[in-house]
Design a protein that fits this description.
The protein is α/β, with parallel strands linked by helices. The chain is built from three helices and four strands, in the order βαβαββα. It has one domain. Its EC number is 2.4.1.120.
């Protein structure tokens, strides 16, 4: 029996609810069609997602979840703004510029 090679997909979401939710639906759709999809966003957004699900086990960075013909996984990165109420979180332009700097160091090319 030959094993099927999965297409690997990494989707990185800007940490805003209006963008996270649609991207999660796309991720799950791609996984169901046979891809290995990793959903990535900032750690604080990951914590908000865990809180919203009321079940930390559903958002686990240590394993992948089978979905349809593929798999789905989470990976959260440190945005270096800490857990507090950082001023850069309140200005879209500042947040975008900061995340572009962090992303260029965090995501290998």
């Amino acid at each position: 029996m030959a094993s099927k090679t999965l297409i690997l997909v990494l989707l990185v979401s800007f940490p805003a609810q209006g963008l996270v939710n649609p991207l999660l639906r796309l991720d799950k759709h791609l996984a169901a069609k046979g891809c290995f999809v990793t959903f990535s966003t900032t750690k604080p957004t990951g914590e908000h997602m865990r809180f919203a699900t009321n079940n930390n086990a559903t958002i686990d960075e240590t394993s992948s979840t089978p979905m349809g013909d593929g798999f789905f996984a989470f990976n959260f990165f440190d945005d270096s703004l800490g857990d507090g109420d950082h001023p850069e979180r309140h200005n879209l332009s500042d947040t975008k510029a900061h995340l572009e700097r962090i992303e260029s160091k965090s995501v290998p090319r």
